[in-house]
Protein: tRNA (cytidine/uridine-2'-O-)-methyltransferase TrmJ
Amino acid sequence: MQLTFILVEPKVPENVGAACRALKTQGFSRLRIVNSRAHREPPARWVAHGADDVLEGIETFATLAEALADVDLSLATSAKARHDKRTVLEPDATLQLIRHHVPDAPHVAIVFGREDRGLSNEEVRQCDVLTTLPLAQPYPSLNLGQSVMLYAYLLRQGVSADPHLPASKPGQPEPSSARAEAVATPDAETRTIRQKDALRQRILRLFQQLDKVPGSPLEQWALEQLAWANEKDVKFLHTLCQSLEKALRSGNSNSPDS
Structure:
């Protein structure tokens, strides 16, 4: 399994450097940045001392959608509940979700928002689930570097505690794509991703046919539950959608207006 950390439009170079050090200390190495060059500023390198390899290995993307293109399961982070997501997972539930997806989701990403305003509602919608860290006091909130450190620690503990999840030792890079192939072959991985994407679009079309308002609570709930669906579940849901589509077509053809 590969774990990728994604920072969306970080503004403070020191925060990027702190994120690099946090990942290095917990044995992670995959860091992506969306629409920012903060990692190119000297302060980022100063703070990332000892984690230069993580800093140099940063991948950059213009949009979050591009950064998530090869990701099987994406987790948006937020300091508060968001109306766009009905389900908010705390650390234990987040780890349970990740374990549930092995081997169907060998590439997992956790997404962090801007220092001043976090992720936009649209960016949250692009992710499969929303996760948060319970705090004793809502204010002051954690800064970006602290959030990355805590999630890296929690995920490392969860991975190390589960014998079914491949784990690298602290200071060593994460499993490469070649290691990921041992968990799921590229063909099987690609097939599951495509089937889930197709299912997501199919569900949206079904809600349109049912004259449901886009973004309704029921639609949001249905889409969020896809995060828990494995390959077998996806196949079953495609069959269910096919039956519903057939019933809708039959109902429309028998209506007085047809």
